Structure formats: structure tokens, C-alpha cells
Amino acid sequence: MVALAACQSNESNTAAKATHAKAAAASAELTRKANMAAAAKVKANELGNIPVIMYHRVTDKPGGTDDRTPAQFRAELERLASENYVPITAAEYVSGKIDIPAGTHPVVLTFDDSSPSQLTLDAMGTPQPNTAVGILLDVSKKHPGFRPVATFFVIRDMFGKFTPEERAQVLGWLRDNGFDIGNHTRDHLNLLGKSEKEVTEQIAAGQKLISDLDKKVQVHTLALPYGNQPRDKQWALHGSANGVRYDYQGVFLAGYTPAPSPFTKEFNPVGIPRIRSMDKKGDCVKFCSTAWLDELNAHPDERYTSDGNPTTVAFPKFKTPFVAKNVTTNALPY
Ligand SMILES: [Zn+2]
């Protein structure tokens, strides 16, 4: 009797399990269908291109072809906000953590060379209004969906600060306020044609510069000075020198196109293109920010559009051959 009861209960357990599994599968299928419908509704394309914009100084007296005035910088951010772009950091981009509302497009705002025009804080820790960060915070206040995040690729000229205390204050402020810090090497040397030792020493020194000032800062990315790749491109991604090891998830160049989605086969962490912020003039008629934002507007089918669900990678079924191999369980072709 005991044996029979046990057997019966096992049987009913198995049956219950099967029913449960069936119900779970049906519910997963329903969720999947709902996700597909939601993605199709906003024409989600998470295999599309993402503009990674490169800024240098934001100053009233532009010194070269890399600088923008505060008015120009503000106008570009206003344009991005009005065209449904939402900033994400370089770290979020390379790791595919793109959590923005349905129908919006990611943009990565990057700042090179850690100049005081990007961030200067007063004695109470408030950003000066005409610095890049001051302007970004102001635009974000006017457009609440426009996340005030950006990535700062820093070098030894640490926002014009010289004492370790003041330098730590600026890095700590960036970290506390959700900004991302990347390495741009310590001395901003051209790494083209340099030996492995010279390349890894420069990058490790940049990493040490940051972690010595603020141990809590996690560095996930590097921007190459002048966008020049070392002889072996992998040296920029992984290496160690003088007891400092670095392992990055992405290395950024200096030009000239929007970057591929991190979910496509085209994504290559050793050389991620960026776009210089500039109007359509001279060599910027086609390859800088105004021209590329016009181009992405003219070809929305090539631009990254989010489905609003960070757990799926949604795209029109037609684009399936371009999905990266590591996107498997969460792919949502529709
Ligand atoms: Zn630079």
C-alpha cells in the first residue's frame, strides 16, 4: 500500500510538472508574441547604427577644428533631444546594457583630454554653467528623457587640476553623478608604430592615474590618442605593465562613421568608430556630427531604435544574418 501510494503520488507529481511546464511554455510564448508586437509597433531595430560623438573643448574661443562653443554644444544636445536620442555611456554601449524607452535611439557622448571646459566645479561642487557638464545638465532638465550621462576619456591634464585632492574631487563628482570614466592614456602619445612595451606602459599608466585617484572608478573603455591603433590592435584592449593590468571591453577611434550595434557581427571591440562634433563644412561636409545626424534621419532603417525592453534584442527578421553569435536566447526577430 505504501509503495502504491508513493507511486501514485509520483505519477501525479510528474503529471503536475508536465502541466506546469506546458503552462510556463504557453505563457513564455504569449510574452514573446507581446514583445514582438511591441517591437514591431515602434519599428525597433537593435542591430542599427549608434552615433558615438567625440567632443574636445567647449569654449567661447575655439582653438581648432575639434572645439565647440557653448552655444554650438547646446544646440547639438537640443537637436539630439528633439530627435528622440537618449544618451548612454561608452561602458553601457560596449556591454550592450542599453536601457532606453521604446522608440528612442541611443547616442554616446564622449569627451577627450579632460579639459576644464568640460567640467569645472565651484567650491561647493556645483558645475559651472558654461562647461560641457553644466550645459548637459541644463538641457536634461528641460528634456527630462534626455539622461545626463557621458563618458570622459581622461589624461594626466586632469580637468586643469594639479593636486591629488582636487583631482580626486572631480573624478569622484563624475562617478557620484553617474558619469563614466575611460582611459585616454596618461601622456597622450601617438601609439602608432610603438613597441608593445611602450604601448602597454602608456595604457597601464593611464589606468593607474585613474585608480590611484579613485579606487571605486571602474574603467571599461579606452580611447586611442589621435585615434591611432597600435601595431597589434589587441594591445589596446588587454595588457599589463609595471604591475598594473587592464582588460577593457572596447577601444574607441577618432572618426568617421556611426558605430555598429554591439549586437551585430560588425561590432569589433578593438576599433569602435566615433564621429567628430562639427557643422557641415570643409572635411565635415559628410563625416562629422551634423552630416551624420542628417544622414541617420534620412535613413531611419539603418539607425538603432530601442524596443524599450533591455532583456531582448529586437530587430526585423530580415536582418537576422547580421546578428552576433553571442546574441542567442534574447534575440527577438519580428
Ligand atoms: Zn585626445
UniProtKB/TrEMBL annotation:
Keywords: Signal
Keyword 4Fe-4S in record: no
Keyword Signal carried by entry: yes
Compartment(s): Secreted
A Pfam family hit: Polysacc_deac_1
Domain NodB homology: 115-334
InterPro entries recorded: Glyco_hydro/deAcase_b/a-brl (IPR011330), NODB_dom (IPR002509), Polysacch_Deacetylase (IPR051398)
Main location: secreted
Lineage top rank: taxon: Bacteria
Protein name per UniProt: Polysaccharide deacetylase family protein
Provenance organism: Microtetraspora fusca
